[in-house]
Amino acid sequence: MAIREQDLTVIRAWAASYAPEGEDRLGLRAEVDGHRVTIVESVRLVPAVDPADTTIAQLRFTALTELWSLFSAEASGEFHAYEPCGPDERVSTLLAAIDADENGRFWR
Fold first, then answer.
1. Which Pfam families does the record associate with it (predicted)?
2. 36 near 58, Cβ under 8 Å?
3. Which DSSP state fits 104?
């Protein structure tokens, strides 16, 4: 089973509604690759230069269980399971965990 279209709609709407905090912040986007959705923030570090992308998190859908899991991104490019938030059938629960960022893993 592929990622449910309704879940992709929720993820894309969440990313699109994320308000940048300054002129250098260009917003979020959701990049879909198979059963994974990577959340990427674009930031313009230098005016008139292409923006730099920072991977914030990755959401993974397991078709067998129909559950979503949340992973935080490391500077090395690796992803680690975000332990405070276990798998959930509602992707909105995981997006709320990214927003709350209780352990400082997503927003730096």
1. DUF3024 (PF11225)
2. yes
3. S
pLDDT in tens, 83-101: 889 999 999 999 999 999 8
Residue 50 near residue 42 (C-beta atoms within 8 A): no
**Residue 8 DSSP class:** H
In angstroms, the Cα distances linking 66 to 9, 63, 72, 93 are 16, 5, 20, 14
The reported pTM is: 0.86
* Cβ atoms 72, 79 nearer than 8 A: yes
Which residue in the block uniquely carries the two structure tokens 């309704």? 6
Contact (CB, 8 A) for 84 and 70: no
Nearest to 7 by CA among 60, 53, 79, 80: 60
Domain ranges of the chain: 5-100
